[in-house]
Amino acid sequence: FLLSMKSLFLILIFPFAAFVIIILFQLPVVTGFGAKEVSLEIQRLEPIELSGKTLFVSDFQIEGPQANTRFDIDVDDVAKIVIVGDFFFSPRGFLEFGKTEEERLQKGLETFVPSDFTGDIFLVWGKTHDPMLSKSEYTLGEIKLYYLGEYGKFRMGKVPAVVFHGHQLYGGAIGGGLSWLSKSFGYPLPLERLGRKRFGIDEDTWLITGHSHVPAIDYKNKIANTGSFAGVPFNFFFQIHVGTGVLFDGQEIKVVEFFK
């Protein structure tokens, strides 16, 4: 009988242990895996000065010109745009936008940037979805696009900000689910809060991320998530607003909704 109980215990505990390991593997911010490297990458950056209104958006995940995707976003008063990762759906899909990187980026931006926009655009890389680009600066008509790689550091007047997509914190599905659940209970951005501590981000610096597709802002801890334009599966249940961003209007940072 004791042998049977021991066997049953082992049969039950192994799947549970495997499940826990899989979950933790999707939560590097909890385990601390890679935290030192992220911290060093952020520390070595020099801040980029931004003037005027700055809009942070992410997670468009545009699939290709054949999708004929368009996002009606009002950027009339915006001077700078920061795309916080996952702009494209995949590196392979990126190739369908044209023969050169310039042509592909130009056609990608046409999905939401008006033809008369003349400000600067900064692009942060999102793991899995975004292609890795070969240059750090592109001239696209009247637009200058700056490819920052995985991290960005900005100063908007007297407001400093660190920007990265969010895969440094968690896997998208797990992180998105936890973000939605915690926000539902009035505790937004718990993994981002842990992340700023893990990465040693100064308490006076804003942390702006995407990745979870759950828009949220925490003024006390100075953290914001841009949300997404791609949406989430089963959104009839989750009821997450799709089509959001984070705007610095010259005085404050806030979440903005583009589609009602």
Structural class: alpha/beta
**What global shape is seen?**
globular
Order of helices and strands: HHHEEEHHEEEEEHHEEEHEE
* Strands, total number: 13
Q: Major sheet, described briefly?
A: 7 strands, mixed
Write a concise synopsis of the structure shown:
This protein is α/β, with parallel strands linked by helices and 260 residues long. The chain is 30% helix and 24% strand.
Protein described:
- The protein is of the alpha/beta class and 260 residues long.
- The chain is 30% helix and 24% strand.
- The protein has eight helices and 13 strands.
- The protein has helices spanning 2-25, 28-31, 35-43, 91-95, 101-109, 172-184, 190-198, 235-238; strands at residues 48-50, 53-57, 78-84, 120-124, 137-140, 143-149, 151-156, 159-164, 206-209, 216-218, 223-225, 244-248, 253-257.
- Strands 5-6-4-3-2-12-13 form a seven-stranded mixed beta sheet, covered by helices on one side.
- β10 (216-218) and β11 form a beta hairpin.
- The longest helix is centred in the first third of the chain and has 24 residues, at 2-25.
- The model has no long low-confidence stretch (mean pLDDT 91).
